Amino acid sequence: MKQNRLIKLLAAGAVSAIALTTAFAQTSSTTTTTNPAVPVTSSSSTTTSTSTMDASGTITTYTPGSDYISFRTETSSAPVKYYYTKSTTIVDPEGKTVEWSMLKPDMPVRYTYVKEGDRMVISKITLTKPVSYYEKTTTTTTTTKP
Fold this sequence. Notes:
With 146 residues, this protein is α+β, with helices and mostly antiparallel strands.
């Protein structure tokens, strides 16, 4: 009898720990927009809800001219495809805008996305390391003989 009760308590504790870990893994915020063209009455109103989420991972594929970019998240071993738009911004850790040409595979990034239907659309990509870290510098030494 006491052994069953102990097992139930341990199972409830494990489920609670998993739920808390999942809750802290992704942050989200909700924006609600009400359509002003529709009069608000007690029986009818139009509301659209959008939830943005933050995540981090490593770029696995990015092809200029395509409409998607793939990331391998910290929790998933398989790459996940995210779509981007013209309004998607890329910034360095200090918040300065970075060109799309700077994106390379194996770059660690943080990103904000929103789920639109069955697609996940990125609104912002933040590099976790400064741009100077990725830029290659070459040094040329010239020796002249008198």
